[in-house]
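Entry for the shared binder. Reason: the reviewer on the internal report wants the predicted structure included alongside the sequence.
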Amino acid sequence: ALPKRYGDWITAQRAISLTSPRRRQTADDLIRDMETAKARIGAGIEVLATEPLARQAFGFMNLAVARAARRRNAGPQGDPAAQRAPAWRPFQLAFILLNLSGLADSRHPDRETADLLFFPTGGGKTEAYLGLAAFTIAMRRLKAPGVLGAGVAVIMRYTLRLLTLDQLARAAGVVCALELMRTDPANVNARGQKVLGDWPIEIGLWVGSDASPNKLGRTGEADQTTAVGRVRRYRLGQDKRAPAPIKACPWCGTAFTPESFSCTPSNAAPTNLEIRCVNDRCDFTRNRPLPILTVDEPIYRRLPAFLIATVDKFATLPWVGPSGLLLGGASRFDDDGFYGPATPKRGHYLSAPLAPPDLVIQDELHLISGPLGTMAGLYETAIEALCLRNAANGLVGPKIVASTATVRQAANQVQALFGRGSTRVFPPPGPNRRDSFFAHTLPATTTPARLYLGVAAPGRNPKVVMMRVWLALMGAAQRAYEECGGSRNPDNPADPYMTVLGYFNALRELGGARRILEEQVQNTLRGYSKRRRVGERVGLFSNREDLSEVLELTSRVPTSKIAEAKRRLGTPFHEPNPVSSAIATNMISVGLDIPRLGLMVVFGQPKTHAEYIQATSRVGRGGGKPGLVVSLLNIHKPRDRSHYERFRHYHETFYRSVEVSSATPFSARALDRGLAGALVALARHLRPELTPPQGAGAIAGARAALEEALLDHFRRRVEKQPWGCDDEKEERQRSVRTRIVELLESWQIVAETYQNVGAKVQYQQYEEKSPKPLLRGMLEADFETEHHRKFRVNRSLRDVEPEVDLILKNLGENRVGA
């Protein structure tokens, strides 16, 4: 019935009378997009009707998402069966059906189409692509028996750690459900084999070492940042950071304790960091650990079906040999995991190499722009080339799915980043911007809406204005809270406004505000009643004695405290240890999904319109809890003044102001900074003889075939860039071709220079007496020749700032270095 209902609505839109020819043309273009979406939804239903494996995978997907939702809603001691039956929202189900053809059949033309889920914040985008991920994992396991269905099936990438950690918990619940179904005796075929494969369905967190250990380590090592060191210190109370950045069981919600983490089989020779729930009623306790991997070494060996990563982490590819297996190609296997060319002589050969990922999900697409988007697009050349597989109609790559709530000219951005010439936005907008069939914009008279209030005070210090506004909001919230029963009423309607969330554009502004909040605001609120005049009627404000310390969410807060901060923000005010004031930077603009929050103060207009929309959407996300956003604007700043003078009109139309995202991966400066890393990443994992650490010295024998392959991959990617001028494309092609040849020549010269003096060469140097390195850090300055200098490679895609000379002097003003 879904495509039929959608088709009837499209017919009604076609009948809308439009007198202007240009409006009629625009409406016809929109209707054409809607017809395409309807046809793809119908094709997805046809796949389910005609292909048994797809229908079975679709059933597993629905069951996994439903079980995860029931278990999450039940809480640690609740009964999942007693929970309300979960249901898809229409746009979620339609988006899943829309993508089934391209996921079920790698040869389908939809495979090359990038689908962008464009929906307002808080609308449920995450559940839609988690459903797609569950279908992809199940489909892969059903198609390949035994362990051949293992390997990374889904890669979900983010840009900010807060968002990454938030999505880990939600995705892990679905993976837990899939793993329980895999081991369920009911899910076997006629031969008694598990239909979802013999290898565990796991989820991996592939992020920086601040969030999770990169190495397992062992007993006696001096390095305490390894998994063994962090588990030991956490159990002894010497370190408050948990070994993994997850605070509670993603299946039942029980908080972890120090006993939940252990390195197995022993600290002397660990192979994994395992996490177990302490709740006896949970399915993942005692002998059954949670299917979560948080350490790099076991991630490279166990190859989790679902990989959650930050964009930065893909800069690891040229540095770490086993990292290439995440993109497919593992050819050997033993009971501990999978191996490839980086670790020879381990395991026995599989009948066929493991397939590359089938689905890549890029959440918050609007953040992949500017320098980060430029570098990500350059490395994406290597990533997609390694994910390609042969099919009847040529080489095919993974399905690309992206999501965002704020974007403009998305097709150009997707083409620059992923090289996909076709981008489809879902749901397609209708002729009436307030109605797309799957979403309706309702007026504030129908449903509670977010309210924006602008405050500007000429002649007043902005910090004084902030203090007065903060005082008024906290005092008025307390008054309303008391009138509604205070803490005696667990459903107090004023609870969302008892926590003020402050947004600041810079750490400097945030630091000054923190002192004001800690000293002046809190002291003033505690003594409000003492300053009332005799006989003064009780007004809008009340005393607040239960003020907590100011909670901070910024880049300087350790990752281990982020999860705890989010938990406290979601705590109702009648429960112990609530938050009265929180301050944050753009860390909260995405990933802070806490329905309780209802009050925000924005200090100064954010730098971009997309940032403003995303950040202020953090409040008022819960039904029946409208958000209030107070924007404090400095009337003496031209930009702030302009926003204040056009406040109402701007907020009624601020989606039209969203900026076009920029990504130029093949610009001259981007090639200077990132081509060497992308080239080595692709070369190292493309040719097996180059993959081991000392494979860097084998360049001479592999160069001829390697040069041809590299030129072909980069040529095709440059051709797909959204440049309008043929001459510019040709010039860019020549530049890239010349640079690739020069880099390969320099690579060979570096290797031969070391080999001629009897030294071995490898990709990176682990200690002083180890073989000589090919790759160097971006901050290194001493190089034997210019050939060596060319291989300065980033370890993070964010390290793209211009170079700055630092001159160091001692107390005697003598220069000691630069």
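Summary line for the report: The radius of gyration is 28 Å.
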